[in-house]
Specification:
The structure holds two protein chains of two kinds. By secondary structure, chain A is of the alpha/beta class. Chain A is built from ten helices and 13 strands. The longest helix of chain A is centred in the N-terminal third of the chain and has 18 residues. Chain B is elongated.
Amino acid sequence: MHKIQRHLLNLLVAGLALSLPSAFADSLSDITERGVLKVAVPQDFPPFGSIGPDMQPRGLDIDTAQLLANQLAVKLELTPVNSTNRIPFLTTGKVDLVISSLGKNPEREAVIDFSSAYAPFYLGVFGPADAAVSSLADLEGKTISVTRGSVEDIELSKVAPKGATLKRFEDNNSTIAAYLSGQVDLIASGNVVMAAIAERNPQRVPLMKLNLKDSPTYVGLNKNEAALLARVNAIIAGAKADGSLNAISEKWLKQPLPAGL
Amino acid sequence: MAYQFDFLPVLDNADLLLQGAFFTLSLTAVGTLLGVGLGIIGAVLRAWRIKPFNQVFGLYVELIRNTPFIVQLFFIFFGLPALGVRMNEWEAAVLAMVINLGAYSTEIIRAGIQAIPGGQLEAAAALAMNRLEIFRHVVLRPALAKVWPALSSQIIIVMLGSAVCSQISTEELSFAANFIQSRNFRAFETYLVTTLLYLAMAILIRQLLAWVGRRFVVGGR
């Protein structure tokens, strides 16, 4: 009995040692030697990542991963993940990078490192091009559809002026329908939802008017990978400068990359 | 751990609930007056087979009674703007309720009119009553008296059904309840209070309609 327990313990320790990346590893040279960049991408979160009609992953995150692989001059290997297992895939060394609509928060920062932001993710007030709204005060006298109880509802309810009318709907579809049918002037939602509208109804693409809450997405890396982090940041900075990240944002989010990203 | 009941977050929003209840009663009042009015017109046209209106109303009655209220409401609010007909959420809610109650009350009142014995009309004619007098005293009033309980029930059903109007952001009682629940997550407490409010409103309307029936329809002059 004791013997079995000791064996199990040994196995456990060995497993832990294997799964923890060494503090002195240099993933960047590993990747270039291997000739393959392994990236965890979403498969169920359009437009960041979903499975296309050809059964291949496609989306903003996949294009961003391809951009990084091209710049590193290596092949790209995608691993589909979901939002709960994407960080374990990285910390156990199964992938080199997580490009999976990953937002930054202190809990995650304790476990992994983040590159600079590569895509916008925000909640805001959106409206047609001719709606003159540039500040919260401009919402005076406007009607805005919003999904009841959502984060954007809570945020907007806190800051909206008294003269603004919030029309709260049961779900995202009703909120969108109210905007598309012209029952409201503006819509409060996430930029991802706006991209979905743009896909279905290109004539009435709502443009961002006000930002309510910002949570851009970052590339996730293991800690103590200074060389890889520097290289990823350099590639992202270069892609911002030459407009290739903007092109990806325009393609999938139907919105230009915000200047301050 | 057992659920900790806490009604304070709901009672803090009592003003929202009471305002919602007031709007539900207002919607019901307007919807009932116009809806029953539409029903009386439809019932007469249908009972006396006045062409071509009886066929038009027949189509309308079948269309409304065989489709869900929420679909009618969504069609008016989300669908009609595509044809250039844009109503705000209150107008859409009232219109949907009038159209809905109009169809049901057409059939209810028609039953009452058709139940009037032919001899009663002949007796009125023999007394040299004019057409309007015959309609008022010999047709409509006895007809309404016969179907008053059924009509009252239908009005209550429309009042309860108006809860659906919260789906197009009409801020009636159910909207207030959903709103409060989405802010404090006290589902049990919020919906218990809302249920009691609806029950009280239904009893109130029933009593009111019973009184109206005794005073103006069934009873004396």
